[in-house]
């Protein structure tokens, strides 16, 4: 464990040492007493953070969310400093080049302390912007729950399902929460929407089933006229956590499936559920995780999932990873009018304003947030309810989706 921590800790210290040159340069204007307090505080924060990361890594009895938040604190301290260091690095490279030239040209430009101070001030300002943004993302944006409403029109929607409303949530990552308060808020919001159906499209946990168990009472409160249906995501299989044996990993997955059952959710594992309204039918199909990238598990079996519902013309598919849509779903002999996915989180970072939407995750996923259409088939990618890695969100809020299905004749 300690060997795995050496590289990130060493990198953090290296960046800290370099960024400290900025702090020292600016600190020359302060009285010596305040300068020593500032310098001491700078290193105290760094040392305490590193000590907490190391200590929590060896305390497996500590809640998982504590380790996740310590990692986020490290990111909050590291990323802004890297940005600030870029300014200082540019100045140092200029000085190096000027020094080399000075060896051959005595008339070369000398070093100006005022310019060094100006560059340091620019570096501090540049670092302060992502620092404050990341802090705000952890304490505010991560819990700024948004309801995204969409009406989707179809030529072949059975008349009995005209106006069907669906609430979709995804990527809860319940192990990231220290309490059930936010989950309770999300459940209250969903219930206030009074949807006909509720779908959960994967990643209930970060790694282990035990993360979800404290929240079962909140999950149980989710109710809809036509039921709550769920699927698994890539994090639900325990692939990102060490296990003492294959049997222990399998037992964890069984335990997670039991959480779905205790919550009253109909977990679809490469199978389906049929809604029948006066003889008109709609098929809800759920596949296990299938991702186009080799880094994600391919447990999904679409052929198996649709076996027995080939004659039902209108199908809603739950598939966690949206890369499944282009790779398999659109090419399948069966038509899936609506696919619901999650997985991307919108990278938990991006810009969404009227008329413009951007996130770095769009360079990995063609369908990454919102509604997409191709040849009469739609996919909706939910931005996720929880978070993982960086325990916050910047510009991409947690989402509850409310979809209403309507006939094209009513458009």
Q: End-to-end span in angstroms?
A: 59 Å
The major sheet is characterized as: 6 strands, mixed
Overall shape: it is: elongated
Radius of gyration: 26 Å
Order of helices and strands: HHHHEEHEHEHEEEHEHEEEEEE
Number of domains: 2
**CATH architecture descriptor name of the largest domain:** 4-Layer Sandwich
Overall number of strands: 14
Number of helices: 9
Fraction of residues in β-strands: 15-25%
CATH superfamily of the largest domain: Metallo-dependent phosphatases
Q: Which class of the largest domain in CATH terms?
A: Alpha Beta
In which range does the helix fraction lie? Answer: 40-55%
- The name of the CATH topology of the largest domain is Purple Acid Phosphatase, chain A, domain 2
Supply the helix-strand structural class: alpha/beta
Q: Compute the average pLDDT.
A: 89
Low-confidence stretches: none
Protein described:
- The chain is of the alpha/beta class and 411 residues long.
- It has 2 domains: 2-139, no CATH class; 147-410, Purple Acid Phosphatase, chain A, domain 2.
- The chain is built from 9 helices and 14 strands.
- A 6-stranded mixed sheet has the order 1-14-2-3-4-5, covered by helices on one side. The protein has a 6-stranded mixed sheet with strand order 6-7-8-9-13-12. The chain has a two-stranded antiparallel sheet with strand order 10-11.
- β7 (280-286), α8 (302-306) and β8 (315-318) form a beta-alpha-beta unit.
- The longest helix is centred in the N-terminal third of the chain and has 41 residues, at 64-104.
- The protein is elongated, with a radius of gyration of 26 Å.
- The mean pLDDT is 89.
């Amino acid at each position: 464990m300690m060997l795995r921590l050496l590289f990130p800790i060493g990198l953090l210290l290296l960046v800290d040492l370099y960024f400290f040159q900025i702090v020292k340069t600016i600190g020359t204007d302060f009285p010596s007493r305040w300068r020593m307090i500032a310098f001491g505080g700078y290193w105290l924060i760094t040392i305490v953070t590193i000590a907490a990361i190391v200590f929590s890594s060896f305390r497996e009895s500590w809640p998982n969310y504590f380790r996740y938040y310590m990692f986020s604190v490290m990111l909050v301290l590291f990323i802004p400093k890297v940005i600030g260091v870029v300014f200082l690095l540019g100045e140092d490279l200029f000085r190096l080049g000027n020094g080399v030239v000075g060896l051959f040209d005595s008339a070369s430009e000398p070093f100006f302390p005022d310019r060094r101070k100006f560059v340091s001030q620019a570096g501090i300002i540049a670092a302060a912007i992502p620092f404050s943004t990341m802090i705000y993302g952890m304490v505010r944006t991560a819990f700024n729950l948004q309801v995204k409403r969409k009406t989707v029109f179809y030529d072949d929607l059975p008349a009995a399902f005209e106006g069907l409303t669906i609430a979709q949530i995804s990527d809860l990552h319940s192990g990231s929460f220290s309490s059930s308060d936010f989950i309770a808020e999300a459940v209250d919001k969903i219930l206030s929407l009074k949807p006909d159906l509720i779908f959960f499209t994967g990643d209930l946990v970060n790694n282990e089933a035990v993360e979800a168990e404290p929240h079962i009472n909140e999950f149980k409160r989710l109710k809809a006229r036509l039921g709550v249906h769920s699927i698994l995501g890539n994090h639900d299989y325990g692939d990102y956590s060490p296990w003492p044996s294959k049997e222990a990993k399998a037992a964890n997955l069984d335990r997670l499936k039991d959480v779905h059952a205790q919550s009253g959710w109909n977990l679809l594992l490469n199978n389906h559920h049929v809604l029948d309204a006066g003889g008109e039918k709609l098929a809800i199909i759920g596949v296990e995780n299938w991702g186009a990238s080799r880094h994600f598990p391919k447990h999904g079996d679409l052929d198996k999932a649709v076996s027995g519902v080939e004659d039902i013309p209108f199908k809603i598919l739950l598939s966690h990873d949206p890369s499944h849509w282009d790779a398999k779903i659109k090419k399948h002999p069966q038509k899936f009018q609506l696919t619901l996915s999650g997985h991307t989180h919108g990278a938990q970072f991006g810009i969404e304003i009227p008329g413009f939407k951007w996130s770095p995750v769009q360079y990995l996923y063609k369908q990454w947030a919102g509604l997409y259409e191709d040849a009469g088939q739609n996919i909706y990618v939910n931005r996720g309810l929880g978070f993982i890695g960086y325990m916050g969100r910047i510009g991409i809020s947690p989402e509850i989706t409310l979809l209403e299905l309507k006939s094209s004749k009513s458009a």
